[in-house]
């Protein structure tokens, strides 16, 4: 066992050391990696350390350098050293974090990490926090608490009786909500396409006047019915934030307000960016990720719910064979029963950074994004499509075909990873900064790569 762990630690170290020089994209595709590993299920087992060596040899060519400082795809985050080490310990300790009695350490570290997160994000200290797998499950968990609360207020027990025969519930979402909001509504029996879709502006921000019109019309048609309004902190294309004033507006119509803040909620930690989230702290629930902006390894998300009882009512359960007292167990904050103790990595990242380090890291992401915008905008026939307010930059080249060609050529070239998308009818190259490892040199090398690749694309035409 000791040998297997040392082999793994050495391989992990070699991988991290290679990030600065390796091709950001994988060398082998999925079929090639599978072909190396494929054999009939072996009759005989193997030594643990040999298993690790075999895995490293087969997997390494198929790894994407996601933790590289020049990886700007989707919103992926990086990995802080303390969080990575804590993640190894989480597996070695193998705690089942479902019950207070099942792992006092797991529950205690989650409790302290939750207190720090609520403080850092400027959210109510009395909120309950569930340590889930990511933003998708954070949205699901928070919206389950929302569904419980608004139906309970209408005299309906959705946990006991389900949705058949329940009072009709109105859900309002912005036109540029993240797809995981629709999925969460699907899982909750609320239908992924039944929501009232509220218009968004040119940056993807929900339009306040449109929300007011929608809520007024709903109040006329269905006076006093249960309602949920879903807002967004951090649009994946523009990085824009829905207006905080939407919270008070939605509350006037009795709605529960949920904020999908997978990467955007962290703007609240930076004094220079805090204005972006102003007002959103008055919402009822917030979903966010630790594996994106906080730079904790996958998978780690946070469901934050102001009304702790609503969360515990939606998620909690008791059983005779468990050891439970009157205090809510961790299992009452998440959909899972058994799960890993996710608080260790989150606590470690927060402890490594401290308040100053966290706010500096988040501001640094936005500063790198602003530099990308400035330097790419200066290239001939290249424009920045969004107002760069946070960590996201959408770049358009001379036309859609050229943008697609640049995206493909960058992927093949391997200095950096930026993902193509379509936004407001235009093909764009998305640059998303969310890795603590990214420094000025990485940004400079990535801009050089785009410039070089653009020259090749234009030269080849
Ligand atoms: C990433 C993201 C999600 C989903 O989070 P996962 O961690 O991938 O489950 C939800 N909303 C927004 C705005 C996101 O950026």
From TrEMBL:
Q: Which UniProt keywords apply?
A: Decarboxylase, Lyase, Pyridoxal phosphate
The UniProt entry, under Gene3D superfamilies, shows:
Aspartate Aminotransferase, domain 1, Type I PLP-dependent aspartate aminotransferase-like (Major domain)
Q: Which family does it belong to?
A: Belongs to the group II decarboxylase family.
Organism annotation: Serinibacter arcticus
Q: Which GO terms describe its biological process?
A: carboxylic acid metabolic process
Write down what this protein is called: Aromatic-L-amino-acid decarboxylase
What would you give as a GO molecular function for this chain, any one?
A: pyridoxal phosphate binding
Cofactor needs: pyridoxal 5'-phosphate
InterPro entries the record matches: Aromatic_deC, PyrdxlP-dep_de-COase, PyrdxlP-dep_Trfase, PyrdxlP-dep_Trfase_major, PyrdxlP-dep_Trfase_small
Positions carrying N6-(pyridoxal phosphate)lysine: 292
């Amino acid at each position: 066992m000791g040998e297997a762990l040392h082999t793994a630690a050495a391989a992990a170290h070699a991988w991290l050391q290679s990030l600065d020089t390796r091709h950001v994209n994988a060398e082998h595709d999925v079929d090639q990696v599978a072909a190396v590993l494929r054999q009939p299920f072996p009759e005989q087992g193997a030594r643990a350390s040999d298993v690790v060596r075999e895995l490293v040899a087969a997997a390494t060519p198929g790894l994407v350098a996601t933790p590289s400082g020049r990886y700007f795809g989707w919103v992926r985050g990086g990995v802080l050293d303390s969080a990575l080490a804590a993640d190894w310990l989480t597996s070695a300790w193998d705690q089942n974090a479902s019950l207070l009695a099942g792992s006092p350490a797991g529950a205690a570290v989650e409790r302290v990490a939750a207190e720090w997160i609520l403080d850092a994000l400027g959210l109510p200290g009395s909120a309950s926090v569930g340590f889930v797998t990511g933003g998708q499950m954070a949205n699901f968990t928070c919206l389950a608490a929302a569904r419980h609360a608004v139906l309970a207020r209408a005299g309906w027990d959705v946990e006991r009786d389900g949705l058949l025969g329940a009072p009709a519930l109105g859900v309002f979402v912005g036109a540029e909500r993240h797809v995981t909001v629709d999925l969460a509504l699907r899982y909750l029996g609320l239908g992924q396409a039944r929501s009232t879709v509220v218009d968004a502006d040119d940056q993807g921000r929900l339009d306040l006047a449109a929300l007011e019109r929608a809520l007024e019309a709903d109040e006329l048609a269905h006076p006093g019915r249960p309602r949920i309004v879903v807002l967004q902190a951090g649009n994946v294309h523009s990085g824009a934030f829905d207006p905080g004033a939407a919270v008070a507006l939605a509350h006037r119509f009795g709605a529960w307000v949920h904020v999908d803040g997978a990467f955007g909620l962290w703007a609240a930690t930076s004094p220079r960016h805090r204005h972006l989230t102003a007002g959103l702290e008055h919402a009822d629930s917030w979903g966010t990720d630790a594996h994106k902006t906080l730079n904790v390894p996958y998978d780690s998300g946070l469901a934050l719910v102001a009304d702790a009882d609503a969360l515990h009512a939606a998620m909690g359960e008791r059983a005779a064979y468990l050891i439970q007292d009157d205090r809510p167990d961790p299992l009452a904050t998440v959909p899972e029963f058994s799960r890993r103790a996710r608080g260790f990595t989150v606590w470690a990242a927060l402890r490594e950074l401290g308040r100053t380090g966290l706010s500096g890291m988040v501001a640094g992401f936005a500063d790198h994004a602003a530099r990308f915008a400035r330097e790419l905008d200066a290239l001939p026939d290249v424009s920045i499509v969004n107002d760069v307010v946070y960590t996201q930059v959408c770049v358009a080249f001379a036309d859609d075909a050229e943008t697609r060609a640049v995206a493909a050529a960058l992927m093949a070239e391997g200095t950096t990873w930026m993902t193509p998308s379509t936004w407001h009818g235009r093909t764009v190259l998305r640059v998303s900064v969310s890795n603590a490892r990214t420094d000025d040199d990485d940004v400079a090398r990535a801009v050089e790569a785009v410039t070089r690749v653009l020259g090749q694309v234009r030269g080849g035409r």
